[in-house]
């Protein structure tokens, strides 16, 4: 137990040191959602009317609606970037060091996932702070109740990233998958538009969005920010996270032999 | 029983047989040079010895721990230096040591003491605060060896650890690891394709195309060993072609 904990702390520390050591990484992570908030959402404010739906009890501006979605965007991009670092670790060899630690492989991957999720949550809070300064505020308690939900959502998208990384041999391939995963996942969700708005445009689009686990992660965050639990969204997020984690563990199972490529391959053999 | 035992290990990469019934032993405190040209199967064997993947057939025992049945116990008594560097270039030497210590379950003052001692052993203590990126190739390798020794392993595995290093640095590292085996009773498996890294009295395993061609005490060193190695591997090539 002590050993497992010391590994978790070490992996989190490494992730934190790398994050804070790379000046500008936090700024870069925040630029994307802030542009969406300040430019895209401001422009759409007049064009898009939103009716009153839970958790909202009054009419809201588009900027207010979009903030939980942009928080989801931060989690999604950071979760994928964390998995990208796994592919890099593999190419650089540091993955071998991790996988040869005398601990169960599932725990080592979980530690990596937790470390990445913590960094994501940190960035999400930095974004929420800027949004508050901009005038988009949530109930004070909401900033507290959203914390565990952010962690769960970050865990889910991070597990998806690890699952993807387990099937990818090279960094170049991963960049392609990012485009095929991140953008569809983000745009086919309730991050930018409510599901009922999607239904008005196309029933098929609505169904796809409703089936997207990222939609449920965003909705869980949205409700938690208003101190309301959305059990269904939370349940889907947790279930999807467990399924993705299962795929990730399967992908990194040494018995399958797939890991030999992921761990850098047997150079010269 | 301690030391290292490889018994009838076979492994394929697709249809290619990378290891074919490989067997040899390394006694406690022995320095075993695993000599083989590129493609001999050395790195595949290291992948199996470090649990990155499992052999299709055969048995690997490290310091008395069966790699298949007691993987974690086997890894806990093994220090590894991989062929490709596994250091985090963006962290300091000290942070790299602490990261590894955490993975090994070392904590608190004991961890710091061990990290300091390991760095001192390899003459790296004054570089503790430097970023790994700023170190030259020789110092990076020293750091990897220091790190691999931090948890007091009984078996030390090094996969072509001198690749890319200049001759004096290669000589220093080879001599140092020989001393570790002699003075501290470590069982060392040192994979290389360079015959000048083999010292008199070393245990020698010559591999070629996934098979052990010869095992035993080093018959010679220097140019004589080079000639012997070339004759062995050349003979194996001719036998393959005839078959």
From TrEMBL, chain A:
It comes from Maritimibacter alkaliphilus HTCC2654. The chain crosses the membrane at residues 34-53, 65-87, 107-134, 140-164, 176-196, 231-252. InterPro entries: ABC2_TM, ABC2_TM_bact-type, ABC_2_transport, Alc_ABC_transptr_permease, Nod_factor_ABC_transporter. Keywords: Cell membrane, Membrane, Transmembrane, Transmembrane helix, Transport. GO terms for cellular component: ATP-binding cassette (ABC) transporter complex. This is Transport permease protein. It is found in: Cell inner membrane; Membrane. The keyword Transferase does not apply. Belongs to the ABC-2 integral membrane protein family. Pfam families: ABC2_membrane. It is a multi-pass membrane protein. The lineage of its organism: Bacteria, Pseudomonadati, Pseudomonadota, Alphaproteobacteria, Rhodobacterales. One of its GO terms (molecular function) is ABC-type transporter activity. NCBIfam families: phenyl_ABC_PedC (TIGR03861). Residues 24-255 form the ABC transmembrane type-2 domain.
From TrEMBL, chain B:
GO terms for molecular function: ATP binding; ATP hydrolysis activity. SMART domains: AAA. Keywords: ATP-binding, Nodulation, Nucleotide-binding, Transport. The keyword Nucleotide-binding applies. The keyword rRNA-binding does not apply. SUPFAM superfamilies: P-loop containing nucleoside triphosphate hydrolases. Residues 4-234 form the ABC transporter domain. This is Efflux ABC transporter, ATP-binding protein.
């Amino acid at each position: 137990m002590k050993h497992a904990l010391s590994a978790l702390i070490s992996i989190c520390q490494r992730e934190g040191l790398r994050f804070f050591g790379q000046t500008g990484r936090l700024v870069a992570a925040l630029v994307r959602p802030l542009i969406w908030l300040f430019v895209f959402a401001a422009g759409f404010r007049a064009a898009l009317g939103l009716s009153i739906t839970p958790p909202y009890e009054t009419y809201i501006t588009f900027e207010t609606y979009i903030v939980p979605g942009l928080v989801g965007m931060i989690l999604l991009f950071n979760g994928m970037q964390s998995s990208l670092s796994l592919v890099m670790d593999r190419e650089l060899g540091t993955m071998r060091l991790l996988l040869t630690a005398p601990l169960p492989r599932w725990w080592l991957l979980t530690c990596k996932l937790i470390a990445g999720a913590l960094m994501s949550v940190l960035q999400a809070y930095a974004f929420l702070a800027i949004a508050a300064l901009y005038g988009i505020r949530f109930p004070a308690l909401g900033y507290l109740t959203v914390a565990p939900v952010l962690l769960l959502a970050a865990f889910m998208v991070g597990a998806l990233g690890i699952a993807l990384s387990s099937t990818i041999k090279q960094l170049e391939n991963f960049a392609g998958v990012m485009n095929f995963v991140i953008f569809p996942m983000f745009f086919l969700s309730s991050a930018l538009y409510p599901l009922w708005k999607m239904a008005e445009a196309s029933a098929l689009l609505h169904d796809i969005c409703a089936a997207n686990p990222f939609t449920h992660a965003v909705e869980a965050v949205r409700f938690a920010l208003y101190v309301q639990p959305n059990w269904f969204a939370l349940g889907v997020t947790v279930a999807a996270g467990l399924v993705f984690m299962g795929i990730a563990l399967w992908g990194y199972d040494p018995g399958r032999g797939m890991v030999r490529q992921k761990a850098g391959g047997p150079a010269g053999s | 029983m301690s030391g290292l035992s490889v018994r009838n290990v076979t492994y394929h990469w697709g249809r290619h047989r990378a290891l074919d019934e490989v067997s040899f032993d390394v006694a406690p405190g022995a320095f075993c040079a695993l000599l083989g040209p590129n493609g001999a199967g050395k790195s595949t064997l290291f992948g199996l010895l470090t649990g990155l993947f499992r052999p299709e057939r055969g048995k690997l025992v490290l310091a008395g721990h069966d790699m298949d049945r007691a993987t974690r116990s086997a890894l806990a008594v093994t220090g590894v230096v991989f062929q490709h560097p596994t250091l985090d270039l963006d962290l300091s030497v000290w942070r790299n040591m602490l990261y590894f210590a955490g993975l090994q379950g070392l904590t608190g003052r004991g961890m710091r003491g061990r990290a300091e001692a390991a760095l001192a052993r390899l003459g790296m203590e004054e570089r503790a605060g430097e970023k790994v990126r700023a170190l030259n190739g020789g110092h990076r390798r020293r750091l990897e060896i220091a790190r691999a020794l931090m948890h007091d392993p009984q078996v030390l595995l090094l996969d072509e650890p001198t690749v890319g290093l200049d001759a004096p640095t290669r000589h220093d590292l080879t001599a140092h690891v020989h001393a570790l085996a002699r003075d501290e009773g470590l069982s060392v498996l040192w994979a290389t394709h360079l015959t000048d890294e083999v010292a008199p009295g070393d245990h020698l395993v010559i591999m070629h195309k996934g098979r052990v061609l010869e095992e035993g005490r080093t018959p010679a060193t220097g140019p004589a060993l080079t000639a012997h190695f070339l004759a062995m591997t050349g003979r194996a090539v001719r036998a393959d072609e005839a078959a």
